[in-house]
Design a protein that fits this description.
single chain, 11 strands, six-stranded mixed beta sheet, alpha/beta, about 45% helix, five-stranded mixed beta sheet
């Protein structure tokens, strides 16, 4: 049927066993399937299995075509399993044969991530001590490797820390802000309870005069407070269930595992406890103040005169309503200051010059079958024709193709000034390389500070050329824009290309 673009990852045969994940259909990878030249097999996500194959229970053993290569589906992974990336559809073996990296570069580039499970009784400190020894031995045995740095301080870390450490502080800040909002709301409700209790002062005085115990009066007021907080908690849970469905598509910043956020009994229990606690805590002050009325004055007085007497004084003459009002104003001021600072930060970010014009700029991701487009010439011809046709479309001002988008992560490559003595690869500066077509800078409206842009002739010339940014220019020529002109200078890029590249623009 119609093809679609999936997200895949290559993992070793023991990957699922290390994570403790068992396929819900089929089997796990075998060691021989992870060896060079092993049979092409794949496991698919539960969502892809249901969406594309209708949840066929006989999916194991079926053949699918991935990147023009036939793969045998051997298993289906559990629902919600999305690791190591959030939108993975397919897991394949042989990670060392990643096709995105040329074979010559694979031998020098550290492009794999390693996972391990500690034995029982082995601490993280012991593992790092052993890793330090292994790293030193590795650097001595493979001095040409990019990651062969014996003095580096990289350590093994718990996988949970690696996944969520960078968002933990933001989530705690959000939790604190929501807690402040809850306190403000509770203080408002407590003030309303005090006002209502004041208006009912004559009622409670009459009940007390007829023999009602104070504990019963307090119990009645607390029951009303708890009932209100329970209804509020239930409404909050209902709104949370609705909002949770929209969170994965709303988050501009990708929090890890947003698609796994869901309501469970732990969350429901936490909400119930918070609702009960707030109902008791903020209903207690009105209950204590109203349950001990001045019977003689309240029964003799009437209307406004009776109401003025009950002001919420419960302990040492403190006026509870005034204390609650002070606390509410203080919390509101804190939130207002935080919101103002956040608005200021957003306004500052909106004014940051990103180096290109994002207005009216559209992008599309194109993935070519590697067997059909197996040479650089075929790929170049496809993208040249694609760019030419898109440029001719009505309403299109310009078009270009590139390996990646601006400001998006991509693997770096060692770079060195060709005029200086050659350094080892792991001693060179690492820079990100973006192959682009000649119209790239005009399409994104990236200003050229020096030199010229790419031309069609640059692809046919024997001399490779490059355009660098000002940041890289300052790293190699610190006096830039004064001093030697980087345009015309040459760089060594990568570890397998012996010919230097000439800089034609900045």
């Amino acid at each position: 049927s119609e093809p679609e673009m999936l997200h895949g990852i290559r993992v070793s045969a023991r990957f699922m066993r290390i994570l403790g994940v068992t396929p819900v259909r089929g089997r796990d990878f075998l060691p021989e399937e992870d060896s060079p030249g092993g049979p092409p097999v794949a496991m698919i996500s539960n969502e892809l299995w249901k969406r594309r194959f209708g949840g066929d229970p006989r999916i194991a053993g079926r053949t699918i075509t991935l990147a023009a290569t036939s793969y045998t589906v051997i298993g289906v992974l559990p629902p919600r399993f999305r690791f190591p990336f959030p939108d993975i559809d397919v897991w394949m073996t042989a990670p060392a044969e990643l096709p995105l990296i040329p074979p010559k570069s694979r031998a020098l580039s550290p492009f794999l991530s390693v996972f391990g499970r500690l034995k029982s009784g082995v601490s993280l400190g012991q593992a790092n001590a052993e890793m330090k020894v292994i790293r030193h031995q590795y650097a001595s045995a493979h001095p040409a490797m990019l990651d062969a740095r014996s003095k580096t301080s990289r350590e093994v870390t718990p996988m949970k820390e690696d996944l969520v450490a960078h968002v933990r502080s933001m989530i705690w800040m959000l939790f604190g802000a929501v807690g402040f909002v809850l306190l403000i709301a509770c203080v408002s409700v407590a003030n309303l309870f005090l006002a209502r209790a004041t208006s009912r002062g004559r009622e409670f005085a009459l009940r007390s005069a007829l023999g009602a115990a104070r504990i019963r009066l307090i119990g009645q007021l607390l029951a009303e407070s708890i009932l209100l907080s329970a209804l509020g908690g239930a409404l909050g849970m209902l709104l949370a269930a609705i909002i949770l469905r929209a969170i994965p598509s709303m988050t501009a910043f990708k929090f890890p595992r947003t698609e796994e956020i869901h309501l469970d009994w732990v969350v429901v229990g936490f909400a119930a406890v918070i609702s009960l606690a707030t109902g008791i805590l903020f209903g207690l002050a009105p209950a204590l103040g109203t349950s001990k009325p001045d019977l003689m004055r309240m029964l003799r007085a009437s209307g406004e005169t009776a109401h003025k007497g009950t002001s919420g004084r419960i302990l040492a003459g403190f006026n509870v309503r005034n204390l609650l009002s002070i606390g509410q104003v203080a919390l509101s001021v804190v939130l207002l200051i935080g919101a103002t600072l956040l608005i200021e930060s957003v306004a500052y970010l909106r004014g940051v010059v990103v180096g290109f014009n994002p207005a009216h700029l559209l992008t599309v991701n194109v993935s070519l079958p590697p067997l059909r487009y197996d040479t650089e010439q075929k790929k170049a011809a496809f993208f040249e024709e694609l760019t030419r046709r898109v440029r001719l479309l009505p309403g299109v001002k310009n078009a270009a193709t590139a390996l990646s988008l601006p400001m998006m992560g991509y693997m770096g490559s060692p770079v060195q000034d060709a005029a200086k003595p050659q350094l080892k690869l792991n001693e060179r500066l690492i820079a990100k390389i973006f192959p682009v077509t000649p119209t790239y800078f005009r399409t994104l409206e990236i200003p050229l500070k020096r030199g010229r842009e790419f031309t069609e002739q640059d692809k046919q010339d024997a001399q490779q050329v490059a355009i660098i940014d000002e940041n890289l220019a300052r790293r190699f020529w610190p006096r830039y824009p004064a001093g030697p002109d980087p345009v015309g200078q040459r760089l060594f890029i990568g570890g397998v290309n012996p010919k230097p590249v000439e800089i034609i623009g900045i």
